[in-house]
Amino acid sequence: MDYRQYLIDYWDTIDKANAADYPNGVDPKGYRCEKHIAYLGDYDPAHMLNLYYPESFAAGEGSLPSIIYIHGGGWMYGSADISDRYLGYLASRGFAVMAMNYRLLQQGNLQEMISDIFAAMHWLGKHGPIRGFDLSKVLVCGDSAGGHLSILTTCLTRSEDLRSFYGVTAPSFEISAVSVSSPVAETGRLYIAASEDTELGRGTAKAYVDMMLGEKGENATWNGHMAASEIIPETGLPPIHIIGSESDVLTAHTGYLREVLEKSGISYELFYRSKEEGIHLLHVFNISHWEWHESIEANESMLEFFGRVISG
After folding, report:
1. 266 burial type by CB count under 10 A (0-12 exposed, 13-18 middle, 19+ buried)
2. For each successive 10 residues of the chain (312 residues), what is the average pLDDT?
């Protein structure tokens, strides 16, 4: 079986299901956005970013605490646009928000993906302050695969060695805090399509690693520096907040991340809901439906956490 193609088809199905659910969502109020800004100047759709602000905020009227959002989608689908409603909600709460597109695994390996994310951060470092971003107060957040990329990105900003493996340079600002929703933590344990004890599970997990390493395979300089357990113990993290639920199909990865943090002596804050607290609290529930009561609780927990970090 071509496990790479299986994953492409799998995530295409998820993409279509999410598109079908989109009309069931609710548009937030009180924000404005600037969309599809070319952060590398090549006008490749993979190299666009969006900016979100409170509706009443205008550049030149001061600055706002900043949120950088890295979208999920299994590293294989999606863009900043798929989380418009969630990002608009965050902006309406008084934050300047940047979300970028990046090349997916069908287009490049993990190093190229990270290169795009860092290019967007360099754009923000250059242009963000005049557009109202306070880059002394920065939260990086992401969901699912975007949770993995948020942690990896943050660790890279804290380690010159890691940056050399990925071929990126540090942004001009530091990351104050991290928040991840339904995070994927262990790139070597991506049994997303089926369980570990099945040929499909093992095959798709290996296909993921192969795609992340790209043509260089095991010789890729970032090999061994991709999973949370490989990078966090070396670099540590700024204050971190985790959103998860027992009904999340990938809830095991929330457990993997917590285990790494606890072994590394890193404290964290956890917003976690059991199955009994809501059958609809599924994977990335707080992103896909920001308007649900439980989602607002989760997202407000994240913003309150960020507020304490930047005021302390």
Report:
1. middle
2. 95 95 96 98 96 92 96 97 97 98 98 98 98 98 98 98 98 98 98 93 97 98 98 98 96 98 98 89 96 96 98 90
216-223 CB contacts, 8 Å cutoff, 24+ apart: 216/109, 220/109, 220/111, 221/111, 221/164, 221/165, 221/166, 221/167, 222/110, 222/111, 222/114, 222/165, 222/166
**Which residue range is the domain that position 264 belongs to?**
3-311
Give the number of other Cβ atoms within 10 Å of residue 85's Cβ. Answer: 19
- 270 and 258 in contact (C-beta within 8 Å)? yes
The CATH number that applies at residue 241 is 3.40.50.1820
Measured between alpha carbons, how far is 73 from 29 in angstroms, rounded to an integer? 25
Torsion of CA 242, 168, 189, 72, to 10 degrees: 50
Domain count of the fold of the chain? 1
State the DSSP code for 49: E
| Dihedral Cα 9, 14, 17, 18, nearest 10 deg | -140
